[in-house]
Specification:
The protein is of the alpha+beta class and 74 residues long. The protein is 20% helix and 35% strand. It is built from one helix and five strands.
Length: 74
């Protein structure tokens, strides 16, 4: 997990929300949907990214809640 933001990752007990670079999970959840909802609240509050990983650990979805530096003009 090298990208800034909140990551939803598979865990032995279900799904975990982890901050980028953190060793411990912020929270644990039984379903991926619950973990995504919790991570989204944190990402919106902190104006960061949300990365959703699949069961294989690869990023399958990304959402940005911060300042978009590549937004179109006009």
């Amino acid at each position: 997990m090298t990208k800034k933001g909140q990551h939803v990752v598979p865990n032995a007990d279900g799904w975990a929300v982890k901050r980028s670079g953190a060793g411990k999970a912020t929270s644990l959840h039984g379903t991926q949907a619950d973990a995504i909802a919790a991570a989204r609240k944190i990402a919106v509050n902190q104006k960061t990214e949300l990365y959703v990983h699949g069961k294989d650990g690869r990023i399958r979805e990304r959402s940005s809640y911060g300042k978009d530096l590549n937004s179109p003009k006009g």
